[in-house]
Amino acid sequence: MNAQRRFRHGDPVGPLARTPEQWKAWALTIGQRPFRGTQIFQWLHARQQLDPDGMTDVPKAVRALLKTELEQHVPTLERVHEAADGTRKLVLRLTDHSAVESVLIPMDAEDKGEDDTELEDEQDQACAQKQRVTECVSTQAGCAMGCVFCASGHPGLLRHLTPDEIIAQVLIGRALLKPSQRLSNIVLMGMGEPLHNYDATVHAIQLMNCQEGLALSSRRITISTVGLVPQIDQLGKDFQGRIGLAISLHAADDAVRTRLLPINRRYPLQMLMQALRRYPLPPRRRLTIEIALIDGVNDSEQMARSLVALLRGIPVKINLIPLNPVPHTALRPPSEQRVEAFQEVLTRSGLSCFIRRRRGDDISAACGQLAGHPTSLIRQEPSPPRS
Ligand code: SAH
Q1: Calpha distance 14→162 (Å, rounded)
Q2: Ligand 1 centre from 367 Cα, in Å?
Q3: Is residue 35 part of a domain?
């Protein structure tokens, strides 16, 4: 297979990416009844039992078959790095030996107000008691978009992840949660551009939605994109706007945006804004606009005012992310005062705007720092506590 060939719907998939229907068909091909397939889907997706030896009610011969198949397709968890703030970065080794990273981010009381699904959780007492965890998932090894401030894109695109490799991150991540935690949200904001690997990403989301499996509803899943216009339109159609959409906007004028995000040449701001206006958002939902604030580049109050004008009439909430330093650039975050002044312009105009605290930056797990590069991980590991 060509290393950069993208997964397409209808392609044969590995075991983790089989739908419940495909599992039933698989069971028939090995002389089992369809319910055996359903049973295996539930072991994998609802109970995250990825080792067939633990599937106690599945016959030994079937388990042996499964074991071989899973070994050929499923990444293994190589390391878990835990940051001082409880964020955990998972390093997964793919079967072709490349590495991808996912991040488990516990949500604190301070994160309240950033998430539209939170109120529903509070109505459900059992859920409300557990700490909500968001998992940030990767969709590509490397990335082709070349955004100047992002570590993931630095090596270019290594390859698209398969649907198995995308869903595996969620199953492995969920199995690592503490009993006091629950996986409440998925953000496709890790390494890669999810809409550039559209079919595999959508297939993995449909698996997350499955009632017999993870049962995560689409509104708990957010795709973050640099703004690939045709795929934004397609996503709107495929999920009737129910998937959360976050746009990496970063600037309100084409010159600055093109300097930061080369893709802006192909889909300049006016085209992107039209796509956002067309996105079929359900009532009371908002798009997320991400702005990585960079000292002296896009952090002026004038830029904030242009942003207000650009976003007029579009239901949005804005996340300001003071740039997380990455090794290959000299770009730096602005001072705290400048970040606050920027926020002030937006909030005064009635926009809801949050400053994102850095999560897990001591283990290189913050936005834009995921590189899947083993040496940078070793260098960045927190030093052991002194006794
Ligand atoms: N390709 C997708 C998702 C991956 S990046 C996208 O671009 O949206 C997730 C978010 O982190 C994006 O908003 C991205 O612009 C931002 N980001 C990348 N590098 C960053 C950095 N060094 N500091 C802060 N945010 C960064």
Answers
A1: 9
A2: 5
A3: yes
Q: What is the CATH number of the domain that holds 45?
A: 1.10.150.530
Question: How many domains, in total, are found in the chain?
Answer: 2
The domain in which residue 158 lies consists of: 75-381
**In a domain? residue 5:** no
**Is-catalytic flag, 147?**
no
- Provide the CATH number for the domain around residue 243: 3.20.20.70
CB neighbours of 67 closer than 8 A, spacing ≥ 6? 51, 52, 53
Choice among 101, 135, 193, 290 that is catalytic: 101
Q: Which two tokens stand for residue 43?
A: 């072991």
101 labelled catalytic: yes
Same domain, 29 and 150: no
The tens digit of pLDDT for each residue in 336-365 reads 999 999 999 999 999 999 998 777 777 777
Q: What are phi and psi of 15, to 5 degrees?
A: -60, -40
Q: Within this chain, do residues 168 and 249 fall inside the same structural domain, yes or no? A: yes
Instruction: Mark whether 312 and 358 lie in a shared domain.
Output: yes
Spatial distance between the Cα atoms of 201 and 234, rounded to a whole number of angstroms: 13
Model confidence, pTM: 0.91
Q: How far is the CA of 368 from the centre of ligand 1 (A)?
A: 5
DSSP characters for 312-369?
A: TTS-EEEEEEEPPP-TT----PPPHHHHHHHHHHHHHTT-EEEEPPP-SGGGT-STT-
Domain annotation covers residue 46: yes
Q: Quick one: what percent of the chain has pLDDT higher than 70?
A: 90
Ligand 1 centroid vs 357 CA: distance in angstroms? 14
Give per-residue pLDDT as tens, 292-336: 999 999 999 999 999 999 999 999 999 999 999 888 889 999 999
User: Are residues 223 and 206 both part of a single domain?
Assistant: yes
